[in-house]
Amino acid sequence: MNIVVIGPAGKMGRLIVEVISNRNDMKIVGAVAPKGRDYIGRDVGEITKIGKNLGAVVVDDIEKIIDKCDVIIDYTFPEVSINVIKSAVKHKKAVVCGTTGFSQEEINIIKEYSNEIPIVLAANTSRVVNLMYKLLEITAKTIGNISDIEIIEMHDRNKKDAPSGTSKEMGSVIAKELGKKLEDIAVYGRRGKGERIPKSIGYHSIRSGDISSSHTVIFGLLGERLEITHHAHNWECFAQGACDCAAFLQNKKAGLYTVKDVLGIEE
């Protein structure tokens, strides 16, 4: 498969380029960076410092290279991702989108575009995190209605959105099993006085140093509690997962897919 990476100089972009360069089933044919960057026109391998040139250059306009690829992998920002997907629809290319922080309106736009092309929309491409979703589903179904549920998520100081897209997905999984919508029962942070709101899901976001990613969901009962936690020690698991998502999209029909689809995790 031929891959175009959006944002190759970012922390995820660099890792995705490296993972692609070490796989036998795909190759990178180009990358797209913002206009004005001093590395436009240079080899992708050179600017990502993976120790070898890849014979693919960085451009500042996706239209220059999009016809060379089968799949686009994009971990950038909502406004960038929407434009990338627009171009993908125009050229009938598949997209793996790991961007987070979309508004509901933007998610609805992506859903509409998925009627034209195959898209994997994944707030988290870790295999283990997606297994955790299944564990949360089982737990919420079993003890959710008798638990005080809290979600604590930690990321590096540079993460733009809070709470994280992954923690929102976790909350949505739990809320669905409770017969609720997350937006109706989520409480973001606390201050002042007053008891905990019954049947709510509490959110707490920590941004510090270079924490890769950490999510803990607490199901608190009287006399005991269950904690389900995932820690990512670095971002490589997400880059590997992104490339697995790209491989999954080969010959797929138009539609909106998740990492559960990629991994074959049953609903």
Automatic annotation (TrEMBL):
It comes from the Bacteria. CDD domains: DHDPR_N. Pfam families: DapB_C (PF05173), DapB_N (PF01113). The keyword NAD applies. Its EC number is 1.17.1.8. The active site is at residues 155, 159. Residues 1-124 form the Dihydrodipicolinate reductase N-terminal domain. Residues 129-263 form the Dihydrodipicolinate reductase C-terminal domain. Catalyzes the conversion of 4-hydroxy-tetrahydrodipicolinate (HTPA) to tetrahydrodipicolinate. PANTHER family: 4-HYDROXY-TETRAHYDRODIPICOLINATE REDUCTASE 1, CHLOROPLASTIC-RELATED (PTHR20836:SF0), DIHYDRODIPICOLINATE REDUCTASE (PTHR20836). Homotetramer. This is 4-hydroxy-tetrahydrodipicolinate reductase. It comes from Caloramator quimbayensis.
